[in-house]
User: What shape does this take?
Amino acid sequence: MTLYARVSTDTSPEILYQLLTEQWKLSPPNLLISVTGGAKNFYLKARIKNMFHRGLIKVAQTTGAWIITGGTHAGVMKHVGQAVRDNALSSSIHGQIVAIGVATWGIIHNKDALSCPFYLSCCSF
Assistant: This one.
């Protein structure tokens, strides 16, 4: 399931953490993995791509980490999303991978469908 929250720039981190752990029932992370990089698309050879996918998923699973990215389907963030998606499609045996994309409202495609009049909107789609 994909969840989202639209929050103000002055929303406190405590409120966001409460949303993630109490409302969405995510286990608190033992580690945060922040994957950052440009949004420019690039090609990865199959061997390197597979190593990146396997390594990222293994670290997230074995440590109980949350993976945090810029939340777009471009560049290195696209590769993270593909790794998480492929893992979810291939096996649910090893547990859930938590991936959180943090994107600015201005770059969200079809954002009108996500708009709510609330200060903190928590919706799923």
Observations:
- The chain has three helices and five strands.
- The two ends are 7 Å apart (CA to CA).
